Structure formats: C-alpha cells, structure tokens
Amino acid sequence: MKNVNQKANKKVQKALGVFDKAIKEVADAQALLTEGVKLDVANVIVLKQKIRNLEMDIESVEDGKRIKGENMQKNSKLLRNLKQFKA
To answer: I need a surface site. Which of 3, 10, 43, 60 has the fewest CB within 10 A?
Structure first.
C-alpha cells in the first residue's frame, strides 16, 4: 500500500510541476503581449505625429495653390489690359 501511495504522490507532484510550468509560460506570454502593446502605443504616437505633420504640409501646399491661383487671375487681368492697351 505504501508503494501505491508513493506512486500516486509522484504522479500528483509531476502534474503540479506541469501546472506550475504552464502558469509560468502563460505569465511569460502575458509579459510579451504587454511589451508588445507598449510598442504599439509608441508606434501609434509616432504615426499620429507624422499624420499631423503631413496635414500641416497639405495646408501649406493648399495655401500655395490658392495664392498661385490668385496670382494667375491677377496676371490674366493684367494680360487682358496690356493687350487692350497695345491694340
């Protein structure tokens, strides 16, 4: 009977060791995921800043386009006046 109890205890201890290992592995996986989330958050911040910078660039280009359009209208009017004066 003592031998049976020893074998049973060995199996229980082995099962507990496997269980402890599983807990450690899941905790390690959780730590990796946590670190991954931190990196993702940092990447999102960088990308949002890039987007803000690009939006500012777009505004600058649009302003330049608007100014060029206004200058083109002024030049067209001046060209018409000069052609009338020459004629």
So the answer is: 3
